[in-house]
Queue: 4 jobs
Job 1
Amino acid sequence: MVGYRDEGRSGGYQANGYGAYGAYGGRGGAQAGGGYGGFRGAGGGGGSGGSSWRDKDSQPGENLRRPKWETIKLLEFEKNFYKEHSAVTKRSAMEVETYLKENDVTVRGRDVPRPVLNFSEAGLPDDMLAHVCENFEKPTVIQSISWPVAMSGRDMVGIAQTGSGKTLAFLLPGIVHICQQPPLSRGDGPICLVLCPTRELAQQVQEVAMEYGSRAKLNSTCIYGGASRGPQHRDLTKGIEICIATPGRLIDFLESGATNLRRCTYLVLDEADRMLDMGFEPQIRKIVEQIRPDRQTLMYSATWPKEVRQLADDFLSNNVHVNIGSLELAANHNIRQVVEVVEEFEKHERLLKMLEELTRAGEPKILIFVETKRKADELTRWMRRDGWPTLSIHGDKAQQERDFVLSEFRQGRSPILIATDVAARGLDVDDIKCVINYDYPNCSEDYVHRIGRTGRRDKKGTSYTFFTSANAKSAQDLIKVLEEAGQDVNPKLYNLVEIGKNMRGRGRGRWRSEDDGYRGGGGGGFRGGKRGATDDYGGGSAKRGRFDGGGRGGYGNSNGYNNRGFGGMQNSSNGAASSYSQAGKPQSLLSVAAPVGGTRW
Ligand SMILES: Nc1ncnc2c1ncn2[C@@H]1O[C@H](COP(=O)(O)OP(=O)(O)OP(=O)(O)O)[C@@H](O)[C@H]1O
Ligand SMILES: [Mg+2]
């Protein structure tokens, strides 16, 4: 059978019947008898209270105790709500195969339910169906395959290109799952938990959860570091069915007993390979061990490096693995990828030329990635002095500034954003036409995610990447990604492959150093080396925030924004500064963000 790898005797799509779930009486059969007793002892150990800043040496969650699940009698819960639509059942095996083949789908696992080819086949509740139909024409491929699997209660790994709608692939079945559980009682924590690597991504996912969940009268909240704890605490104690969280702050709340995961039966790791890498894995373990073992677990990403595959199995059982597109590292084919091999000292000038060309062509939003926070600040200063409407985002900035900057960029008021890898994953910003890798990232997975900020949905985009001999160790990977996507390969890259092979010990280090941005160096290899504070744990950003001090040098330089080209951008006489102050935000922000009013920006 095409597009599907048989993992064993009984793997994959069944030739007949597909789905083996006919016996379930469909949705609506919520379990009787709530209560969820029997969990005593499952809570955390009290703990560190509300301290915002964790001692540098203490481990997140060290006061959390793993419940002895073996000895706890758990109330049963239902997780299979899927009833195959008659149109899906009637579809011939050939049609299904053709769909899988055309869309380059690979599925592994036992008794995998068939894909649904349109919204009405998905078995979504009526109001959810109506809303999704209002927004979109048909499910994306990952949605078509995921929904039946997820609604059948199966654990799954879903790997699909950037911008392909993975968020709804896991959120809608999550909402269906919640609606079939007994209502929350006082003191209950969330039923659906989505873990994300960055605060901005968590907020974005929560917006989608709110949009769809509120129609089912579900409450959701977003738990992340760097923002004040009070409102988050209030939400948690009020009772929320859906919690989107970054790991560090969630662990804090679990330790302090502000919430618990005793009711959690639907767990998602978004950007799962990132969540399982060394920076996050211990925190993920801490969290997951608070959740009953018979939960449903789903993992999604656009990349699935070998190094995390085995680790993922620790958290999954009898899972279905779905892969759309190449089984190797691959970029979204909507993106035109251009690689320039340059010397480090040439980058500035080259960037300038590139920006001039792009703005002449009227590219509305440009996202520029650099390796370190310091570099982000320096480049921003330099560009602003030269008149480019630029803001930057990285892990040393206070959350308020991060939120502001992203919002300015989203709304097109500040069309150039300079970022570290804090913006590499998951962010869905309309109309980024171009991503520039000023510095090549430390691992090629990050390259795929970074450039994936453009070319989302069915849109096209372009990425430009500066590649130096110092990046030679990644040349081979990059060539493969380019070739897989049918892109021209800069011949100079081939010359660097040999050099790269000799750069031993600097292998595929992915660990973020204290200075952010996945520095390579020491260790090499996936699990070697040490990553510094992860982006979201403990809110290091605010602690080190340099915000209130009036920014850093060149910010607010009044040379700003001298009507650079950017043809085609709307005229915006109230630049970021005025619109921001109108919003009543603290003045200190303006020291960083203030462009000169009265310009096109
Ligand atoms: N069925 C659909 N048809 C068209 N667009 C969709 C559909 N479902 C979701 N989208 C839109 O596609 C965009 C990308 O979705 P999403 O952010 O979930 O992608 P993703 O696969 O998670 O990407 P990434 O790997 O970068 O995280 C969003 O704007 C979303 O609203
Ligand atoms: Mg996503």
Job 2
Amino acid sequence: MENNVKCDKCGNSVPASKIKIDLKHKEYVCPDCWAGIAPKPQPKPQAPVVDNRATKQCTFCMYKYKFDYDRNYPPKCPYCNH
Ligand SMILES: [Zn+2]
Ligand SMILES: [Zn+2]
């Protein structure tokens, strides 16, 4: 028979093996409440969004350049003028 420990936050009785100890506030915290107070893992830095629409590759010299599809500019590859 496992000892139950009362959560200091919500009052639920949780098996001692499940209870977390909030060292900062010296409180017993059940897993449910712990989920709300535990430090969140840092979100992974997002890879910079590459807007492929704005990048065009010259089929002749394979040079990649910014291309404005609204203005159709530049009309030619700035590298080889093809
Ligand atoms: Zn709780
Ligand atoms: Zn080119």
Job 3
Amino acid sequence: MLAIDLTGKRALVAGIADDAGYGFAIAKALAEAGAGVVVGTWPPALNIFETLIRRGKIDESRKLARGGMLEFEKIYPLDAAYDTLADCPEEIRTSKRYNERGDFSIQGLADAMRRDFGDKPLDIVVHSLANGPEVKKPLLETSRNGYLTAIGVSAYSLVSMLQRLAPLMRPGGSAVSLTYLASERAVPGYGGGMSSAKAALESDTRTLAFEAGRKYGIRVNTISAGPLASRAASAIGFIEEMVDFWATWCAPCRISMPRGQKLWAEYEPRGMELYSVDTDDASPGREAEIRAFLQENGLRFPVAIDDGTASAAFSVSRLPTMMLLDRTGQIIWIHVGALTQSEEHALRATLDRAL
Ligand SMILES: NC(=O)c1ccc[n+]([C@@H]2O[C@H](COP(=O)([O-])OP(=O)(O)OC[C@H]3O[C@@H](n4cnc5c(N)ncnc54)[C@H](O)[C@@H]3O)[C@@H](O)[C@H]2O)c1
């Protein structure tokens, strides 16, 4: 249980379709604190999400520390690109994943919540969604359409959600969205107008906090989240490097390194680079010892010889230390000690999502 008590409060988390993203983690933390949680899920992902839940595939992640499981009071279809159903083009409305979902617009969500829970059913709104169809394209190559879609879905959707959901919120309530560093710094790979969308989201948050604060007595904030290998981030091709710090004298390294080699062979073709970093003390025979160690253990990957700079940069204090870095150099997964089978599973799951 979190130190805050949200018993009797209800949260809407918009943007959950599996257990790998921020939305799920936030929903779980809110439930741990005692809040009821309803979810808004993008219709193209809704079927899969319902199946994951029905088949128990995310039961492990749904377990709450306080006992019991994370249960959603309702899962609503939500396409945050549309304010009302009339805004949605006919060919989408009648397509397979949408046609049996009723009103999946933002207005539809507000109406459904009022129907299901009454006039003032909400305390917390979490906007945990984004979409930029051209996110892999540099801004310089982004089309007007791609750019406007990124802004529409990832930034304007918050404005629209507050227009329609703030009237359902009880005074003292709070809305929060998730932004990203690329709003204020150039992050290569975060293209398609997504950096612009996050800048708009941050600017809108200030204005909405002022306006909705006065009009509805609610707070509006955005959190700049660190990198996480969610489904959305994985679509960007976001993991760049696996870095493994080791030394010839280190027994747990001997256990881990063949596993590391297997992973490298498997994931390198999918775009993962391995930096295997030897941290042995400087000595005249060091290179020969490393070569012998690699040969003895059947290891074939290239090795970088650290003069202490790399281990210091990553504050490596125990060996082996293995980490995954995203393209901005931030650590998104780290393991210290021998890479056991269960750790290998966790690492594979992260790589599979991200590559
Ligand atoms: N993962 C990261 O590294 C990272 C870093 C900083 C900020 N964020 C932000 O966190 C938020 C959640 O993303 P995540 O990385 O956890 O990924 P995620 O894939 O778990 O969440 C994104 C969700 O948006 C939904 N979505 C896409 N288009 C939609 C639409 N038109 N209408 C409704 N829903 C739609 C997707 O179905 C998905 O469930 C996003 O705003 C993202 O930009 C993520």
Job 4
Amino acid sequence: MSSCARRPSQKTPISNFYLAGDYTKQKYLASMEGAVYSGKLAAEKIIDDYAANPAAFKSLSQPALAAASLAASVTAAAEIVDKSSSSL
Ligand SMILES: Cc1cc2nc3c(=O)[nH]c(=O)nc-3n(C[C@H](O)[C@H](O)[C@H](O)COP(=O)(O)OP(=O)(O)OC[C@H]3O[C@@H](n4cnc5c(N)ncnc54)[C@H](O)[C@@H]3O)c2cc1C
């Protein structure tokens, strides 16, 4: 079993709790690209969950909403990193 199989997904079993970091399950392990890419994956999972059930996010505090907005920005930045990594 590869180490990737044991790594945690960005989406956790805990509601509204997401993970980002190079140690999470993603394709650029142990690197800055991996750290950024994991942020993109986490942001995508937040956006997917929001689209599926916006009401679940209405009860979140102001900092959590700010984090969701930051997540959208990270997604945009990570797409730039992803494109430049794949062209190397
Ligand atoms: C010596 C060295 C050289 C490297 N060189 C390269 C390189 O050339 N290119 C490359 O792509 N990658 C390199 N890496 C790997 C790269 O640094 C990591 O992959 C990247 O920094 C991971 O980012 P991260 O945000 O996932 O975690 P981190 O950068 O480790 O950030 C985690 C943060 O969480 C904080 N933290 C931990 N526990 C807690 C807690 N309980 N409460 C609050 N805060 C906490 C830590 O202090 C840290 O600031 C190198 C790593 C090392 C060690």
